[in-house]
């Protein structure tokens, strides 16, 4: 087996092992407050691992995905592609905005509003759930729907819960075939370090909420998408590293954080270059974008020559000009850091990533709350 093949297999097995332990920890915590919101936050990463592993039939036994229905495959692809945010070349900003407004916001509102027979009571109906941990927003019902990849008709149908469980069961079978084990004796995941007392939730009217965050009333739809960016960064800054040393993370946790950070930073760069949508932002909003993408850390992570590192984390296979002599499967991130970041080792890159996550999370929270 070549080094390229070994990296693919090792990446898939690492992710499957982690997901097995994650599911195991969630099972132990079943019924507690954190166990309810965590699956929404991790859904696109679960989909990413399955989607990319399935696209490596020369390295990963295709029989592992034999029980994946056509429906589950479609949902898996929807969820995986949601990670791209504004880098989605098929939707771009306009397409993603249209999807959010029509398929998520509008359908949530139609389902949750106008259900009471008493007209005055309609004033207090809500159509958006906000979930926080440690005082920071980590998910919303809109964000969850977007990243689950499941159509609103199924989410809100009479069998919505059963439908989601069936799809998740099919995903679980895939991971089981890849070696995931709920009873693995390995290190416990972040779930085991969470506290139900730190979780909070509230229900609000979406149009009011989106009218007072980020760019306020001028761009409610864009504010909804930026709210998702905010939840992504708060999740990887606080929850996913609970109980861990941020400078010594295992492969899958580093991967989840890096991908979330990269996509938010890159997406804000895409927004900055989009003349129409960027011109609709207020000067204060533009200043927040400039501060996020203009940090020294963002400059390092968004450099064109290190794009291959993000791509390898996303797709498993080595991409770009890689010196295979530097690859070491027993080293953190298989020793890939020195290939893409010659001036850094695993620990120094981890420091950059952690600083960038913290700066981005803080700036997004300030931007949202100062509006």
List the helices and strands and how they pair.
Layout (H helix, E strand, L loop, with lengths): L2 H26 L4 H22 L15 H13 L9 H21 L15 E6 L2 E5 H8 L3 H4 L4 H18 L21 E6 L1 H5 L9 H20 L11 H23 L1 H5 L3 H11 L2 H6 L5 H9 L21 H4 L5 H25 L1
Antiparallel strand pairs: 1-2, 1-3
Order of helices and strands: HHHHEEHHHEHHHHHHHHH
Question: What characterizes the major β-sheet?
Answer: 3 strands, antiparallel
Coarse shape? globular
**Gap between N and C termini:** 55 Å
Averaged pLDDT: 92
Number of helices: 16
Strand-residue proportion: under 5%
Main-sheet strand order equals 2-1-3
Our Rg estimate from Cα atoms comes to: 20 Å
Please estimate the helix content. Answer: 55-70%
Kindly name the structural category. Answer: mainly alpha
Counting DSSP E segments of at least 2 residues, the number of strands comes to 3
Low-confidence stretches: none
Give structural attributes.
59% helix; 3 strands; globular; 371 residues; single chain; mainly alpha; three-stranded antiparallel beta sheet
């Amino acid at each position: 087996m070549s080094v390229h093949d070994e990296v693919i297999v090792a990446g898939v097995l690492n992710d499957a092992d982690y997901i097995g332990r994650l599911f195991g920890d969630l099972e132990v915590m079943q019924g507690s407050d954190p166990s309810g919101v965590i699956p929404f936050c991790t859904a696109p990463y679960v989909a990413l691992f399955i989607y990319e592993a399935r696209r490596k039939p020369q390295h990963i036994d295709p029989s592992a995905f034999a029980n994946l229905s056509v429906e589950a495959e479609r949902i898996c692809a929807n969820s995986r592609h949601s990670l791209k945010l504004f880098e989605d070349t098929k939707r771009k900003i306009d397409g993603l905005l249209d999807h959010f407004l029509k398929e998520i916001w509008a359908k949530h509102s139609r389902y949750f509003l106008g259900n009471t027979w008493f007209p005055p009571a309609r004033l207090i109906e809500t159509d958006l759930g906000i979930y926080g941990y440690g005082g920071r927003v980590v998910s919303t019902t809109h964000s969850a729907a977007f990243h689950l990849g499941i159509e609103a008709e199924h989410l809100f149908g009479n069998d919505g819960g059963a439908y989601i469980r069936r799809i998740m069961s099919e995903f679980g079978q895939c991971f089981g075939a890849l070696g995931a084990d709920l009873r693995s004796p390995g290190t416990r995941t972040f779930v085991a370090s969470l506290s139900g007392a730190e979780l909070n939730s509230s229900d609000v009217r979406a149009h009011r909420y989106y009218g007072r965050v980020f760019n306020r009333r001028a761009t409610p739809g864009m504010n909804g998408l930026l709210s998702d960016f905010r939840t992504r960064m708060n999740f990887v800054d606080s929850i996913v590293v609970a109980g861990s040393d941020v400078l010594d993370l295992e492969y899958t946790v580093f991967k989840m954080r890096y991908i979330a950070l990269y996509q938010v930073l890159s997406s804000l760069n895409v927004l900055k270059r989009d003349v129409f949508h960027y011109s609709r932002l207020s000067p204060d909003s533009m200043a927040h974008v400039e501060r996020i993408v203009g940090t020294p850390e963002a400059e390092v992570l968004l450099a064109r020559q290190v794009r291959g590192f993000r791509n390898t984390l996303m797709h498993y296979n080595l991409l770009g000009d890689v010196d295979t002599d530097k690859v070491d499967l027993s080293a953190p991130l298989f020793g890939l850091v020195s290939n893409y970041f010659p001036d850094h080792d695993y620990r120094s890159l981890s420091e950059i990533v952690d600083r960038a996550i913290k700066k981005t999370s803080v700036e997004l929270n300030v931007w949202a709350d100062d509006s």
